[in-house]
Write a structure and sequence with these properties.
The structure is a single chain. This protein is globular. About 50% of the residues are buried. The protein has one domain: Glycosidases (TIM Barrel, Alpha-Beta Barrel). Helix 18 links the parallel strand 11 and strand 12. The two termini are about 20 Å apart. The chain contains 19 helices and 14 strands. It is an alpha/beta fold and about 475 residues long. It binds 6-O-phosphono-beta-D-glucopyranose. 6-O-phosphono-beta-D-glucopyranose binds next to loops.
Length: about 475
């Protein structure tokens, strides 16, 4: 029986290109879909968190697309935290922190600026060689997300995003270049960040601008099918082109409990779990469309177009590990009047037994142990927690932040991970989300900070971009040094 974290446990940190890199037109990069998302200073924090306001519709999308005089500060993803130009100093800090693995995403528009270019952009490839080489030299493994929401803008405006099967071909060409040129530097590959995002956040997940879409749900499932095919093709290519690196599946995990002991609520929690979580991992880890979705598709009149050979491809190319982001849990109920709260790009049913973060996300460390047990029990594959952390307002004072609230959050979640390991779960890694402060994905704010490293920049892009170590930096460093013994 295991009693603690394994010796080679992958303690790490995670970020994503669009939220960190900036330099949106440097090095030959093309515009990507996330470059268009803009910050709305006229809204209060609460309004910004409201899903209605944070999502694109046709009008807001066109406004950004036709903005002839874009101000950098209005488009936070265009400047990020300037990681593109500062990565070397940042990696020094990561090495001092002691992380064993660094998760970041590759920006497709740096490799193929328009997505359909005949040849890749050498400068873009070189950037990732330099970045990953710097990690390797400091003994930090690389966990690369191939697609974290942003595709080259041209693939949306010319081809319609993931609804077009051609995206699979463009994606495969992109992956071939990555495996060929970066294969020696990457230890773990993730074809898609949160592949269930298409359903709860269509612009991010499948690059569809929702308004005016006649059969939106059908379109979304068609897009997701294309992503499943792209995922299976990635696994297939990895078997052919790589030795050693592993390819995984990832979802945003929405762990849910029945709101009451009414059987109706229990049934609802099973359905919510199937529709929001299991469906995606079942396809990628078990290799088939699960039967419970046949019923759902029939009821909702969803017809997915498949090509000959699709189902065999899915079956023969399942992933090597599973991973998920975990920030909070929610409850399931058939009671339409149940109180609601915010969650990761969704609105969720409130659990009266849990405390919420400043952004309304319900904190539930025990839920992480429950989740790990559920996921491992179902797939019996190694697990990496790809994202977890607390978004909070921080106060920089005398060059540091006394973020005991963050330490509490992380400590209780690491304890839950240890318990799950003792339960027998094959948990191999943990990449804390936004371990260096980055721009929030949901609300585009800089002031929603997750990091153990503070970045001096406000919501309007003002600041020196200097990095500072928070109190949690020293806490995490100790945690890693002692392999989770001292928390
Ligand atoms: C995950 C995304 O859904 O949640 C990240 O993969 C995102 O990109 C993270 O940043 C936290 O969400 P937010 O809205 O607080 O940045």
């Amino acid at each position: 029986m295991k009693t603690n974290f394994p010796e080679d446990f992958l303690w790490g940190g995670a970020i994503a290109a669009s939220q960190a890199d900036g330099a949106y037109l440097q090095g030959g990069k093309g515009l990507d879909t996330q470059d268009l998302r803009f910050f709305r200073p006229e809204l209060s924090q609460k309004e910004r968190t409201d899903r209605k306001n944070s999502r694109f519709n046709k009008e807001t999308f066109n406004k950004a697309l036709n903005d002839t005089n874009p101000k950098l500060e209005n488009y936070p993803f265009r400047h990020g935290i300037d990681f593109y130009n500062r990565y070397l100093e940042d990696i020094e800090l990561f090495a001092e922190l002691g992380i064993k693995v660094f998760r970041t995403s590759i920006n497709w528009a740096r490799i193929f600026p328009n997505g359909d270019d005949a040849m890749p952009n050498e400068e873009g490839i070189q950037f990732y060689i330099n970045l990953f080489d710097a990690c390797q030299k400091r003994g930090i493994k690389v966990f690369a997300t191939i697609l974290h929401y942003n595709i080259p803008l041209n693939l949306l405006t010319t081809y319609g995003g993931w609804r077009n099967r051609k995206l699979v071909d463009f994606y495969v060409k992109y992956v071939e270049v990555l495996f060929d040129r970066l294969g020696d530097y990457v230890d773990y590959w993730l074809p898609f960040n949160e592949i269930n995002a298409g359903k709860f956040s269509p612009y991010n997940g499948v690059c569809v601008v929702p308004d005016g879409e006649p059969e939106l749900e059908n379109t979304i499932f068609q897009c997701i099918h294309h992503q499943f095919i792209a995922n299976a093709m990635t696994v297939k290519l990895a078997k052919k082109m790589l030795s050693g690196s592993k390819v995984g599946a990832m979802i945003a995990r929405f762990t849910t409990y029945p709101a009451t002991s009414r059987p109706e609520d229990m049934m609802q929690s099973i359905l919510d779990d199937q529709y929001s979580n299991w469906f995606y991992l079942d396809v990628m880890a078990r290799g088939y469309y699960p039967e419970y979705m046949d019923r759902y598709f029939k009821q909702a009149n969803i017809n997915i177009k498949m090509e000959p050979g699709d189902l065999e491809l899915l079956k023969e190319n399942t992933v090597n590990f599973v991973s998920f982001s975990y920030y909070f849990s929610l409850v399931s109920t058939t009671d339409q009047g149940w109180e609601r709260t915010s969650g990761n790009l969704i609105m969720a049913n409130k659990n009266p037994h849990l405390k919420s973060s400043e952004w309304g996300w319900q904190m539930d460390p025990l839920g992480l142990r429950i989740t790990l047990n559920q996921v491992y029990d179902r797939y019996r594959l190694p697990i990496i927690i790809a994202e977890n952390g607390l978004g909070a307002h921080d106060q920089l004072e005398n060059g540091t932040v006394n973020d005991d609230y963050r330490i509490d959050y992380l400590k209780t979640h690491v304890e839950a991970m240890r318990e799950a390991i003792i339960d027998g779960v094959d948990l191999i890694g943990y990449t804390m989300w936004g371990f260096i402060d980055i721009v929030s994905c949901g609300s585009m704010e800089m002031s929603k900070r997750y990091g153990v490293i503070y970045v001096d920049q406000d919501d309007y892009g003002n600041g020196t971009l200097e990095r500072y170590k928070k109190k949690s930096f020293y806490w995490y460093k100790k945690c890693i040094e002692t392999n989770g013994e001292v928390l």
